[in-house]
Amino acid sequence: MPHTISDFPPCNLMEPGNDTRTSEFLLLGFSEGPELQPLVFGLFLSMYLITVFGNLLILLAVSSDSRLHTPMYFFLANLSFVDICFTSTTVPKMLWNFQTQSKVITYAGCITQVNFFIIFSGLDICLLAIMAYDRFVAICHPLQYTVIMSPRLCALLVLVSWITSVLHSLLQTSMVLRLSFWTGLEIPHFSCELNQMIQLACSDTFLNNLVMYFAAILVGGGPFIGILYSYSKILSSIRGISSAQGKYKAFSTCASHLSVVSLFYCTGLGVYLSSAATQGSHSSASASVMYTVVTPMLNPFIYSLRNKDIKGALKRFSAMAVRKGPIVLRLKNFPGLQASKS
Q1: Residues in CB range of 194: below 8 A, 6 or more apart
Q2: What b/e sequence results for 4-22 when a residue is b if at least 16 CB atoms lie within 10 Å of its CB, and e otherwise?
């Protein structure tokens, strides 16, 4: 029978060697009855497909249109790729559990989820900060923009983001690997999360908590401070523009990014506050869904609906696809068939 951590005595009251390393966890997710499972499965499957399809469209638009080969859209394409990976870290396993009526995830699977979750969430944070810096340079130093935001610097910024996120993930997961857990523990979420695993450990977690919160301040707070600094300079520069049209044009280039940043950090803060206030509650799982599923799904809509360049690139891409037609149905692409027909 599965248990929560409160059902067990503290680990330090047990004899050495009596604690066991669990081979699996139970992901409670949402506690809906069986009659609601198909509805929840369909809802999450739809959101996942929309997320993947929407972000793939952004990738196709940026890669297929040479007019979008600029630093801003280079970073946007990277963000779309990361959002696909971020959602794919947790949602497919959740859908599989819904389909098989199973809530089990192995210890190795849980560690893997935590590892990739930290990598891609860290990349999201870093890329949002880089995009804020890009907007800062474009608005505050427009004449030097192409010199400052060179292709080499853009690639270097993305590379540093990857290295930072991977190293952070390796640090956190290696700290979790030293912990011991009771068997049959329940995780009150639809995926494995770092703080939940630390809370469920039966060994001393002081060092884990110290590293986790210090890293959260460093990896999460550092880029956030960079975003605030960039936008403070942007607002100061916009106030110096005399014409209302010029102010609107300058601010419109930041509106989509500012919306994504607000959505990302607000939902992330909601996850933290709900987990701290009511551990294991339905509200905590709902906040986690907003952070891991809804935010990546909305990003393509935010960037495409307000962005004429993206909408134009998508229209040109779809027109080109329609004009060429389905390749498999065009006889000229099958010389062998033409020869046999003649």
Answers
A1: 114, 117, 118, 172, 176, 212
A2: bbeebeebeeeeeeebeeb
Residue indicated by tokens 């009251």: 13
Encode pLDDT of 46-92 as tens digits.
999 999 999 999 998 888 888 889 999 999 999 999 999 999 999 99
Q: What is the CATH number of the domain that holds 102?
A: 1.20.1070.10
SS3 24: strand
How many structural domains is the chain composed of?
A: 1
What's the CA gap between 176 and 217, in Å, rounded?
19
Higher pLDDT, 193 or 117: 117
Alpha-carbon gap, residue 285 to 283, rounded angstroms = 5
How many Cα atoms sit within 13 Å of 93 on the Cβ side?
23
Report if residue 328 sits inside a domain: no
Strands (E) in the chain, as ranges, are 24-27, 104-106, 185-187
Say if 52 falls within a structural domain. yes
DSSP codes of every residue in 193-255: -HHHHHHHBSS--HHHHHHHHHHIIIIIIHHHHHHHHHHHHHHHHHHT--SHHHHHHHHHHHH
CA–CA dist 253, 239 (Å, integer): 15
Helix 71-88 with 295-305: angle, nearest 10 deg: 150
User: How far, in Å, CA of 1 to CA of 183, rounded?
Assistant: 10
Pair of tokens at residue 55: 């972000």
Q: What is the pLDDT averaged over residues 14-32?
A: 59
Range of the domain at 195: 36-316
Q: Is residue 111 part of a domain?
A: yes
Q: Please check whether residue 283 lies inside any domain of the structure.
A: yes
